[in-house]
Design brief:
- A hairpin with a 4-residue loop joins β15 (about 295) and β16.
- Strands 4, 5, 6, 7, 14, 15, 16, 17 and 18 form a 9-stranded mixed sheet that branches.
- With about 425 residues, the protein is an alpha/beta fold.
- The chain has 10 helices and 20 strands.
- The radius of gyration is 21 Å and the shape is globular.
- The two termini are about 30 Å apart.
- α1 runs parallel beside α7.
Length: about 425
């Protein structure tokens, strides 16, 4: 079959990979001149297969509305006169209960574990360099109650197949000595040995090269899709500013831009952009930077060592007026990084980034069929794009080919995700 994949972020690229690997003719279409230029560009770098809990959780409720009064909160809501925002926010509020959170985690966990298996197989099969490592992840907690909640979550996740260890403060420091400067506020932590890290944009660039040289995928970059031409309940072609692209099947994996394309076809995608920020900091002194992936739970900052750089990512802005960098937010992030790792150095040379992550309120991607017979959906991954991309790419390829996927897909279908 000839299959057209719309979007060359990490989700679109992995979709193209598994389809091309299965022997299909694939055309990959992207508005930017290179792959991985949107939400994939400078994300947190953590591949957190055992931490797929959604943003919508009981504690997030206070954080979301607390951000209305305190603009420096990690989670911030900026109200807009936008019905889509309030529909999304209402669905988010409904999802902020422990039973709903547990249900979403139980649904996401098989997808995350499948993604881990498929990514590691891809790494073994293809020559891609993206600062990948498998050193595990440590989540540190500064509050005794938060640590107790984390211990309860460890017990719940053990039932889903996650293998984690609860550590006291000194054990956290023994595992990651670079945290010594904040010894006094580490009450304990959770260590998950199975978690990975890597540079998502480098992964995208490497996979793009493999698609072209090994699998013959046609890549059409600098192609802005205006609309999808339909005939009855089928899509005939994608119309770009550089011409018409016909195919037998189409995959919509264009991130937040997918919402407008879907609306032009008469259906809605429950996506809203969540803006996040990151710093890519050159490591000037070994031993001052963490080697493990580290998450500071209280401050909602994730750290991932990527080669000779440290990626620090944080914050969720709901309703940001633009996708660009906000100096106040970056200044706050730099200050917190400097406090946690005072000997790190390199902050004055850090590369700054902000990006919009297309997310559903429940934190689950939308995966599978659309209202059109030959249009497939793979989008709405939020902050889990890199973590889930290989899993959703494989499942999508299975569905298009009529093969039963290795995990339940029903929880991710359009209409069941809000």
């Amino acid at each position: 079959m000839h299959i057209c994949v719309l979007g060359a972020g990490v989700v679109g690229l992995t979709s193209a990979y598994y389809l091309a690997r299965a022997g299909h003719q694939v055309t990959l279409v992207e508005r930017n001149g290179e792959p991985g230029q949107g939400a994939s560009y400078a994300n947190g770098g953590q591949l957190s297969y055992s931490y797929v809990g959604p943003l919508a959780a009981p504690g997030a409720l206070a954080g979301l509305f607390g951000g209305l009064l305190h603009g420096d909160r990690p989670l911030r809501l900026t109200p807009r006169i936008d019905p889509r925002q309030w529909r999304w926010a209402a669905a988010f509020l409904r999802a902020c209960t422990t039973p709903r959170m547990h249900r979403s985690m139980a649904e996401l966990q098989p997808l995350a574990f499948l993604s881990r298996t498929r990514l590691r197989a891809l790494v073994a099969a293809e020559d891609i360099e993206f600062d990948y490592h498998q050193r595990g992840k440590l989540i540190i907690h500064s509050d005794a109650r938060a640590l107790d909640d984390a211990k309860a979550l460890v017990e719940f996740q053990a039932g889903l197949g996650a293998e984690q260890r609860v550590l006291d403060g000194e054990a956290c420091l023994a595992l990651e000595p670079s945290l010594a400067a904040i010894r006094g506020r580490i009450r304990g932590g959770i260590y998950t040995p199975s978690e990975d890290a890597g540079d998502c944009q480098k992964f995208c660039a490497g996979l793009d090269r493999v698609l072209a040289t090994r699998y013959g995928v046609e890549r059409r970059y600098h192609h802005q899709i205006g609309k999808l031409r339909r005939e009855g309940r089928r899509i005939r072609s994608a119309l770009s500013d550089k011409g018409e692209i016909e195919a037998e099947q189409f995959v919509l994996a264009a991130g937040f831009a997918s919402r407008g394309l879907a609306r032009s076809l008469g259906f809605d995608l429950p996506l809203y952009p969540l803006k996040g920020y990151s710093l890519t900091i050159p490591v000037t002194a070994e031993g001052r930077s963490p080697r493990l992936s580290v998450t500071d739970s209280a401050r909602k900052i994730v750290y991932a060592r990527l080669g000779q750089s440290l990626r620090a990512a944080a914050m969720v802005d709901v309703g940001a007026s633009h996708g660009g960098v906000e100096p106040r937010r970056i200044a706050a992030l730099k200050g917190q990084v400097a406090e946690s790792f005072p000997g790190l150095g390199g902050l004055d040379k850090a590369t700054v980034w902000a990006g919009q992550r297309p997310a559903t309120a429940e934190g689950k991607p939308i995966l599978g069929a659309s209202p059109y017979e030959n249009l497939w959906l793979n989008l709405g991954h939020g902050a889990l794009g890199f973590t889930l991309a290989c899993g959703t790419g494989q499942v999508l390829a299975d569905l298009i080919q009529g093969v039963a996927p290795a995990m339940p897909v029903a929880p991710f279908r359009l209409g069941t995700v809000h």
